[in-house]
Amino acid sequence: MPSPTYADVNGLRLYYEVHGSGPPLVLLHGGLLTIELNFGALIPALARSHTVVAVELQGHGHTADIDREMTLENFADDIVTLLGHLAIDEADFFGYSLGGAVSLAVVTRHPHLVGKLVLASTPSRRDDFALEGQLEPGRMPTAADGREWEQAYRRVAPDPDRFGALVTRLGALVGAIAGPSRNELAAIRAPTLILIGDRDFISVARAAELLELIPDAQLAILPGATHVEMIRRPEQILAMIAPFLDPPA
Question: Which of 102, 168, 243, 245 is the most buried (most CB within 10 A)?
Fold first, then answer.
C-alpha cells in the first residue's frame, strides 16, 4: 500500500492514493466505503495502464469530516481542486454509487476535465432509490454489509467513533439528490459506460433512461447482482470496463 497522502482542499485534509502510470483515472467510492473496500481488488489491474488517483471523500475513510454540508457539488469541487493540485488537465472517471453521482456533478460542471466516464450503480436523482418494487429486502444492504463497512471505516478513520454520524449525514445527502437535468445529461460529451446490477436498488429502467439521454453511452448489466454485490465482482467489472477505457487498437 502507498504511504498516506493528503492534500489541503477547500478546508479538508483530503486523502488520496496514486498507483501506476499512464493516462489518469480517478476512482470515487460509494457512500460509507473506503478506497480499499470499494476498489482494492481492481486497482492493481487498472494501475497497469493508468495513473490511478483514488480519493476518499469528506468524512470517509482517512479523510476527516469538517463542519461543511455534504453535497454532491461540494464533493465535486473537492475533486476538481485536487486535480488542479496534481496538475491533471483531464482524467477518466470511474465512480460507484455516491462516487458516480459525484462524477456526474464533475462532468456537468467541468466537462473539459472528464475524458471517459464509468458510472456503476449510480443514482442521478432522489427517486432512483424509491421506484416501485426496488426496495424489497433482497435488493438492499444487509446488517452484515453494514458491519463490514463500519469495520473498514474504523481501521483507517481519524475518529473511528464517527461512523454513526457519517451514516446520518450521508442519509441527508441522499435524500436531497436532485442530480443533473435532462438537458445537462444530454449535453455530456464524454463517452460513458453505465454499469448496473439487475437486482440493484437503482432500477435497470433508470439506467436505460440514462443510456438514452447521454449521447455517447453504453449500458452493461451484471446478472444476479445487487447494489452491494457490484463491488464484489472485480473480474466481471474489469471485463466490462477494460475494453471501454482502453479499446483494442
Answer: 102
Instruction: Give 163-214 pLDDT, tens digit per residue.
Output: 999 999 998 998 888 889 999 999 999 999 999 999 998 888 889 999 999 9
Closest by Cα among 189, 188, 193 to 247: 193
Q: How far apart are CA 33 and CA 41, in angstroms?
A: 14
Pull the grid cell for residue 88: 491533471
- 223-232 burial by CB neighbour count: b if 16+ within 10 A, else e? eebbbbbbbe
Q: How is domain 5-243 classified at the CATH fold level? A: Rossmann fold (3.40.50)
**What span, in angstroms and rounded, lies between the C-alpha atoms of 196 and 207?**
7
* Nearest Cα to Cα of residue 195 among 240, 239, 228: 240
- Gap between the Cα atoms of 32 and 167, Å rounded: 7
